[in-house]
Amino acid sequence: LSDWSEQTIKLGFCCCSYDALLLLLDNVVVSGTTSIEENSVLIPKTHIDIFPNPMNNSGTFIVKNADKEAVTLSVYDIKGRRIRDIYTGVMDKGNHEFSWDGFNQKKEEVPSGVYLLRLHSKNYNSVQKFIYFK
Fold it and tell me: pTM score, two decimals?
């Protein structure tokens, strides 16, 4: 990327997956030297995994947390309504496993459908889609 140092460039990223994510960036300015090697893969320090996906009756969420910090892990329906808080509090650095039984905060079973898992902290915010069916 050093060939484009101090120049305005346009980058486009396309990820083809079940999530059908398309991310377009423009007006990115690269300054100084870079140490990114060609064909290297950048993995976020903090991220979440959902399995199985789709899940039948219950599922597991794995949070790989980069730093000790206050986080909220919540399930939302496709309309953005919070269904249930899975975890709220200070989470240590490392891997943490949580299970979800398909019930909302009122202990009522939710219908089959598409749901969103959101991990939020001061330094990180991620939303992943998953399918739940009974």
Answer: 0.67
